[in-house]
Amino acid sequence: LAAQLAPPDPEEWSRLADMSLEQGDIQQACFCYKKAIEADPCNPRFYFTRCTLLEQINDKKAALKCYKKLLINLKDDKAEEYLEGTREAVRLYYERDEFEGA
Length: 102
Hints:
Blueprint: H1 2-5, H2 10-22, H3 26-39, H4 44-56, H5 60-73, H6 79-95
Helix pairs in contact: 2-3, 3-4, 4-5, 5-6
């Protein structure tokens, strides 16, 4: 609740996501990472963690959307993260039988 009342603080949202995970609430953790991404759209760690969690709850469509957003928002000096995000997006396209997108 405090994070929603305070100005956007990506690290606070990340901390709340970790607390949600400790309580076994993956949905809440996904929400918190979404807020962390909104506060810091260039931090690849938030995207990768959220995508992993979305896949754990079998929301591959949302995970794919998150990877695509990552690829759009990454800075030029994040080549390794870009390649990893691309690999994961392609994997999800294939798992969803969407070969044209891959």
